[in-house]
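Budget justification note: compute hours in this period were largely spent on complex prediction jobs such as the one shown. Inputs:
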Amino acid sequence: ETGVTQSPTHLIKTRGQQVTLRCSSQSGHNTVSWYQQALGQGPQFIFQYYREEENGRGNFPPRFSGLQFPNYSSELNVNALELDDSALYLCASSPADSHSGANVLTFGAGSRLTVL
Amino acid sequence: GQNIDQPTEMTATEGAIVQINCTYQTSGFNGLFWYQQHAGEAPTFLSYNVLDGLEEKGRFSSFLSRSKGYSYLLLKELQMKDSASYLCAVRDSNYQLIWGAGTKLIIKP
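Corresponding output:
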């Protein structure tokens, strides 16, 4: 089975620009969540998508938005980039029943965004 | 607020045993996870605890005490490849994962 794949792996943007990050979930998983991980920190939950609907959101402003497609792949869009948005953005997929048991997240390798 | 505390960094010797502690204060509790993250790589799942007690999986064990808001990850027979960051995460009442900052474990020969 294929794992979670993310693209691009690295990118550099300037303040005020917009960025789109992409994620393909693991086969059989229909829930996708996005995390921001600053250097030396743990992941911070941005939001989660299930069946193309956002069903959970962390403490991030509206300029962080997302989409999930019928094939369960997902996009994270960030508008009006700020210097503090520089981080590793991780996508994770999980099976449908995300509220029970050891619902293990399978992470992609991440997209490292640098904002200058 | 919600808070997960872990030591920032620990050092241990190859072949030895190390215990990484995690304390948490969250709005509700629906399970605790440990993940391993090598530098520049994705976090990978190690263990899950939802009831008090010890869960053993090969060289790795994880313990949970819900009344104390405390968990630890125990790594035995340390190998150089165990050098990584170890992340503690708690699933809260909204089923969101709250993550600690991670403990960087350095293994010396």
